[in-house]
Amino acid sequence: MKFETLMLRGLFIACLAVCGMIFGAMVTATPTAQFTASNRLSAILMAAPSSCALPPDGVVCPQPRG
Q1: Is the pLDDT of residue 12 over 90?
Q2: Alpha-carbon distance 2 to 32, whole Å?
Q3: What pLDDT sits at residue 30?
Q4: First to last CA, the chain
């Protein structure tokens, strides 16, 4: 067997092993944080202004910075 073919097969097997480990980690992962009403992200989203929403024509309204 040629050296290049051996290297490519080895690389393919290594990639399959890494992908398998990543997939296994994603499947067996458990969430560490739960989103609640007191979460900072939800508080920010609730306080976000809804007056400047994207209109139907797709033009974003400008907001002055100052």
Answers
A1: yes
A2: 48
A3: 83
A4: 70
